[in-house]
Amino acid sequence: MISRFPLALCALALAVSSGAAFGEDTSGGISMGKHDSNAPINVSADNFVGDLKTKVGTYIGNVIVVQGDFKLRADKVSVFEVNNKPDHINGYGNVVFISTSGNASGDSGVYDLNTKNITLEGKVVLTKEKNVMRGTRLVMNMDTGKAQLTAKGAPGGRVQGVFTPQQKTKPATPPQSQTTGKSPAK
Prior knowledge:
Layout: H1 8-16, E1 41-44, E2 47-51, E3 56-67, E4 70-82, E5 85-99, E6 102-112, E7 117-128, E8 131-141, E9 147-150, E10 160-162
Antiparallel strand pairs: 1-3, 2-3, 3-4, 4-5, 5-6, 6-7, 7-8, 8-9, 8-10
């Protein structure tokens, strides 16, 4: 069941770890990088419970979902089907998205396959190297690449960000002679 849907939920790590100071593309959207949503999806969990009446499949306990270079970890992941196709995917508890370009975490996450919107809620933290953004709700559209991070309900109600400029390293220069300005001969 789960192997038929594009795992855009896992793409959130790459997508949200871009944004404002994390690097936008020239079209004004957030760069999603290259991700093969047709790649095989591997799911592992401690348990699986399927409900044929409600068409909900739930993976429980140390859930790990991998597609290409994206990974999702959560305490529980549910896949909801409509007309025998996945409609939306919910992740619950300690949701962490990992990609080669950064991570995103929150208390819960939802990917709506119809609108292509991903929503991450709770204590939302986006990290890329030393850069960190915090809020309480992130909404990302996978088609447009546009994302919005808000902090309603957080102390002060404001999004927080800490960005560390990239340090430029100077090439090592050999010691210079004070009288000739040239490197000493060896």
